[in-house]
Structure formats: structure tokens, C-alpha cells
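[Automated response] Your request has been received and processed.

Submitted sequence:
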Amino acid sequence: MAITVHRATRFSQGAGVMLVLLLAVLAAAPWWAGRADLRLMIEIFAYIGLASLWNLLAGYAGLVSVGQHAFVGLGGYVLFALAIFVGINPLFAIPLAGLVAAIAAVPAAFLLFRLRGAYFAIGSWVLAEVARLGFAQVSALGGGSGSSLPVEVVRSIADGRSAREAVTYWAALALVTLIVGLIYLLLRSRLGLALTAIRDSEQASQSLGVRIGRVKLLVYVVAAAGAAMLGALIFLTKLRISPEAAFSVNDWTAFVIFIAVIGGVGRIEGPIIGTLIFFVLRETLADYGAVYLIALGVIAILIMLFARRGVWGYLADRFGLEIFPLRRRVKRSGNP
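Generated structure:
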């Protein structure tokens, strides 16, 4: 009897083909979508990336951070500083912003990893507030009122507004594809097995030889670098940055956590589904003012009460659906 181990299912194989076709359609968006549509899709891509990184931190490494907006703001300010003072093309400044954030995440982790549970969450938020107050004192970048990208810097991206918007859109699509793809490959590797073990039981995983500290540090650094690159891209699109906007806990952490929770924490598909639900709600209810925020809160509470694994988690548990298969399946064939 032959035994084979595989991960893909018929559904995931079909979904993979659909994803490739969807990426091809999205890549052609500058030729069929309007300016407002491109800007909306860039925002959707940014939230998918941020929610996926937060899901990697909380859903797999057990690091429930409420301070990831620290790295979003850092990435935006690094891009502005490199573009204005060093003369680096803003597109090339995006990966450099990720590198700076990865370096900054190491000493931050040294301090935060001494905390556990709610103390870690509070500590990460305090770190973000310190960063906000610190950048508000940098007069060269506008201090508390912020700064805008000079015209010559904007023109260095591409010739003409349409070309600049297209290039920025392609950069956003490439970045979110890279982030989701990297997370998928990471979770399919030996590191992914270590993260699964840590999520299930830290004590048990440590007894099996998993180096918990190193694994969590790597995940934290990767999440910081990704958040910074997304932050750089976000504020490149806006062409202006300020401490309040760059380090907004509401925009870059609260909404991100909401997306991950309603989509499904601990599943790659969760942040994608959650982002789509969030934007449908936002576009539908945004004109109702405070009712919009109340509706988001009610939906989050209902999801946590009746579908604790999120929308995608509920569908996956009930129907066995997986777009990004991670589990190994044993198939037996032939005569014994």
C-alpha cells in the first residue's frame, strides 16, 4: 500500500488558478479602472497587508500587539526623509524603510519581550506613542504639523499623474502579493511548524526544542519591516505625512484588528476576507456618521460570540475550505 503526503485539495487548486487570474486582472487595472478606483484598491491592498502581518503576530506567534502603527508611521517618515534629504527615489525608499524598521524592531523586541499578555499589548502601544511624540519634535519634517513631498520628488516617480498613479498602484499590488506569499511560504516551512507548536502550547514546544525567543523575534522583525513598507507606500500615495496621521492607532491598529477578528485569526485567508467585509461596510455605512462605527462594533461582538474563529474560520470548519493549504494530508492507495 502506497502512502503519499500532500497538502493541496481540489478546492485549493481551483482557488489557486482563480487567484492567478485575479492577479492578472488586477495588474491590468490602470487600463480599465478610474483614478478613484485605483486609490481605493491601493487602500484595500494596504489593509490586507497590515491585517495579514498582525495575524502572523497574534494568530501564530501569540504576540497580541496594539502598537504596529509605530512601524507604519516609521516607514512613512523614513520614506519622506530619504526622498527629501537624501534624494532617493521614493519607490526605492520603500524597501529601505522596511530595512530601517527591521533594525529598529530588534531593540524594541528586547524591551517588549520582557512583558507578557496584556502588558505586552500595552507596552507596544506605549512604544508607538513615544514614536509619535518623538517625530512631532523633528522640525525638519514639519514637526507636529507634518510635511508634504516636494513637487520634484513627486515627479521623480514617473512622468505625468496617470503614470505616477499606475506605478504606485503596481507597487502596492506587488507589495501585498509579496507579503501574503511570504507569510504562506513561511508557514509551510519548519518555522511554520514551530509557530504552530508555540501557538498550541509554549511549554510543550519548548520541551521539544523549539527556540521560542528566536522564532518570535524573527516574526516580530518581519512584521515590523512589512508594516513599515506598507506605511511608506500609504503616505507616498497621500503625498503628505503628519504625526497624528502616521501614528494613528485608529486607522492602522484598531481597524486592522477588527479586520483580522471578523475574517478569522490564525488563518491566512482571514485578513483577506475581513478586509473585503470591512470595505463593503465602510462604503455602505460611512455616510451615516457615528452609526458606522457602532455597526462595526456590533458586528465584531456578534462574530466573537457566534463565530469565534471568524467568518472564514467558520466556513473552513464547516465545509473544509482552504485557499492556502497548510495542513498535511495522508493518502493511501493500492493494496495492503
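Summary generated for your ticket: The mean pLDDT is 89. Residues 5 and 330 are 5 Å apart (CA to CA).
If you did not submit this request, please reply to this message.
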